[in-house]
Amino acid sequence: MKCVKTIIAVALVAMVSSVTPSFAQSKTMTAQEQANLKVVLDWWREVLQAGHVELAEKYQTEDYIQHNPGINTGRAEFVKVFSRRAPRDIKPVLDPAPVIQFAKGPYVVLVWEREGKDPKDGSAYKFNFFDIVRVENGKIAEHWDSVFKNPPAAGQPAPAPVIPGIGPKPVAPKNSAAEQKVEDIANTEFKDILQYGHVELADKVMAAGYIQHNPNVPGGREGFKGFFKGRPVEAIKKEWKNEPELIITSGNLTIYMMKRFSADPADPSKVYKWNWFDMVRVDDGMIQEHWDMATKNNPPMNVPMPAGFKEYR
To answer: CA quadruple 261, 267, 270, 272: dihedral positive or negative?
Structure first.
């Protein structure tokens, strides 16, 4: 009986450690942020999931800025792309729903769980997909996601060049004092550890049971340290080596949007921009959980920003 109880206890611990904790970001959101979140979720449910592009004008600005590198910018171009699917009944709730959702300032963050196939053996695994939407005067004005370009399918012509979105430089929303402490702890991982190579700082800011959603990196603080050990170590500076394009902290969550530039697989002489996302949960002064957009297929190689590239208007 004692053996059975032990097995049950171990199983329960494993079950708890594998489940993403619930998030109460609504407690930290203002009424305006709640309204921004509702607009984006309604748009997603009615226009994207149900395919009712005739409602795009209700939700999106005419000069909607699109940063997905496979879709031309502008509301009219959005409608053209998503008109290819027949509309369906509008469901009362998002299905599937994001695993994490919150609004901070003008930004709405959605994190989705998706399933991929391991290229080595075809087995299924979970990964995450990210969307950030900027709301302006009650309408969706700008969108970023975790998409990068893939080579054209065999026998298929190269896609037409995409007109990229160029918008205002993103401005991080103001943090409360508690949120700034969360962000400072998160910055230790993403700047001091991952950019300057000080893996020993993991003991200072990461929980021993650190939950890892990157399908390529072992879980736990020791698993993280083992995976990233051996990186070149440099003196830590105040500035980032590779500064995030945007950092948003809401309650106990901090999300990073990083700029990436890669050769266009349809025309390697050209470079295009895309975004990489990381997010962590900080509780009790320690980083408890991490999500990013990694899959078991390697992302494109990051290259320097091309000379003369226009980032912002």
So the answer is: negative
Average pLDDT value for residue range 125-139: 98
Question: Does residue 14 have a pLDDT over 50?
Answer: no
What is the reported pLDDT for 12? 35
The mean per-residue pLDDT over the stretch 230-257 comes to 97
CA–CA distances in Å: residue 262 to residues 94, 107, 143, 154: 33, 26, 20, 21
pLDDT band (50, 70, 90) for residue 194 = very high
Task: Give 228-277 as a DSSP string.
Answer: HTT-------SS-SS--SEEEEETTEEEEEEEEEEEETTEEEEEEEEEEE
Name the DSSP class of 192: I
> Could you tell me the strand order of the sheet in which 107-117 lies?
60-66, 139-145, 124-136, 107-117, 100-104
Residue 239: closest CA among 303, 300, 196:
196
Phi, psi angles (nearest 5°) of residue 32: -65, -40
Q: Which residue has the tokens 């939950």?
A: 211
**Distance in angstroms (rounded) separating the CA atoms of residues 83 and 228:** 44
| Contact between 210 and 287 (Cβ < 8 Å) | yes
